[in-house]
Design goal:
With about 375 residues, the chain is an alpha/beta fold. The protein has 2 domains: about 110 residues, no CATH class; about 210 residues, Spore Coat Polysaccharide Biosynthesis Protein SpsA, Chain A, CATH 3.90.550. The chain contains 13 helices and 10 strands. It is elongated, with a radius of gyration of 22 Å.
């Protein structure tokens, strides 16, 4: 039977290329376009809520000295606290935090001196921070992050209404010279474009711990991180994947509500970081795994099929299909990048899109690799 199709293999190849392209276009039109043209609802009544900011740190004295003041000098007219959970640090974090406590009355430090043997990663110190916090709304960030403005707390809590239990923010990286910086920021933008668009489509599946807020009631309702305490990472994405719904989750992409941090400086550090992050993907809900997998697979196949169609079918037809996808990308990506203040990456987007083929190859093993037990 196969010999009947052999004369048509070039046409079949091109048809597969067109189908893969169509899948990509569907994601851009039905998902990413939502972020490109997103406008937050204008609130007629603004209410401020007490907020507990929670930061977990292990051997982060240098980052705390540089970044913690950004959380402590927030212009927020309602009661708030900043909790730092110092998780078994061996550096000078304890003494640094004691000095900060003398100056800032809203700072509360929790010193952990024993390891939670059966709960690897950041989940135990973060749980302690949440359970110790005074207020219903918790706002999470990391020790290596600094709020992009003095109105970070105010802007993030403004998103809440009676039905909202989770607010997804954007954790950006500083713009610096070098191709690694651009690749890290592109991957960060690309991931944010996905999880923010999914949330707008009523299918939220993750958030990032660099900038994330939720209510304590939803934390307790889902028994904290107990469903995945055995996994070192996932305190942000796995919890949101479990607890978020189409009605209880909102996004905040106000530039004053961003956080900023320094990206990794070496390729090895970046590969290790992303491998750790992607090792949690296999624990997502089946629908999310399917949707993310179909997009990634179609993205991965696009350029090999383009090259094959150019060589073995009709290069003019292949270029037309490529051109359609390119124009759609150009139309959707720029407003998304502008909303997330990453528009300097726009001239590079074709290069980054081709790079994603190699990116998927590099990190494919993370989907099956056993997660490490350390969060540092």
């Amino acid at each position: 039977m196969m010999h009947l199709y052999l004369p048509y293999w070039r046409l079949i190849l091109f048809i597969v290329f067109c189908l893969v392209t169509l899948i990509q276009l569907l994601y851009y039109f039905f998902l990413y376009l939502r972020l490109a043209f997103y406008k937050p609802n204008t609130k007629t009544v603004s209410q401020t809520h007490p907020v507990s900011v929670i930061i977990c740190a292990r051997d982060e004295a240098a980052n705390l000295a540089k970044n913690l003041p950004g959380a402590l000098v927030q212009q927020y007219r309602t009661t708030h606290e900043v909790i730092v959970v110092n998780d078994n640090s061996f550096d000078d974090s304890k003494y640094l935090l004691e000095e900060f406590e003398k100056e800032f009355k809203q700072l509360k430090v929790i010193e952990l001196t024993q390891e939670a043997k059966l709960i690897p990663g950041k989940k135990f110190p973060l749980s302690i921070g949440i359970k110790t916090s005074k207020y219903e709304i918790v706002l999470l960030t990391d020790a290596d992050c600094v709020p992009a403005s003095e109105f970070w707390i105010e802007k993030m809590q403004e998103t809440y209404d009676d039905n909202t239990e989770i607010v997804l923010g954007y954790g950006a990286y500083y713009k610096k010279k070098g191709i690694l910086n651009k690749l890290v920021r592109w991957e960060t933008f690309h991931t944010a474009m996905q999880y923010l668009s999914y949330a707008l489509a009523g299918k939220p599946y993750m958030g990032v711990g660099r900038n994330l807020s939720y209510k304590k009631t939803i934390f307790y309702r889902h028994k904290g991180f107990s469903a995945h305490n055995h996994i070192a990472s996932g305190d942000d994405d796995l919890f949101i994947n479990m607890a978020s719904t189409k009605t209880n989750t909102k996004i905040n992409i106000d530039k004053e509500a961003f956080t900023l941090s320094n990206p990794v400086k070496t390729w090895g550090q970046w590969v290790a970081q992303k491998t750790r992050h992607y090792s949690t993907g296999k624990f997502y809900k089946p629908l999310h795994k399917f949707l993310l997998g179909v997009y990634s697979l179609s993205h991965f196949l696009f350029y090999p099929l383009l090259a094959a169609s150019l060589l073995f079918f009709c290069w003019q037809a292949a270029l037309i299909v490529f051109g359609i996808r390119f124009l759609v990308q150009a139309f959707v990506l720029y407003p998304c990048m502008k909303k997330l203040d990453e528009q300097d990456l726009y001239p590079w987007f074709l290069f980054f899109d081709i790079w994603m083929f190699f990116y998927y190859l590099i990190f494919a093993t993370a989907l099956v690799r056993k997660p490490k037990h350390s969060w540092k």
